[in-house]
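Q: Sequence in, structure out?
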Amino acid sequence: MISDLTVIREKGFDALSKELGVSGMAVFIRQLENGSGDYTSEREETLKGVSIDDIVSSIAERKCKQGFGQKMPK
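A: Exactly. Output:
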């Protein structure tokens, strides 16, 4: 019996990688993670008072800074 959790984890990753490939292993592991918190409530709080126009302007500004899209009017 393997008692060291680090060894169990390593052997598990090895088995998943061998059977599913690295990308398949990543997909499998993401499905197991529950996360924490209440995404919907946190998102509503974070976006409180932010309009669609604010979001569109923010995207346009980022594109301009990165050299994409049209220049922002002053």
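The chain has three helices and no strands.
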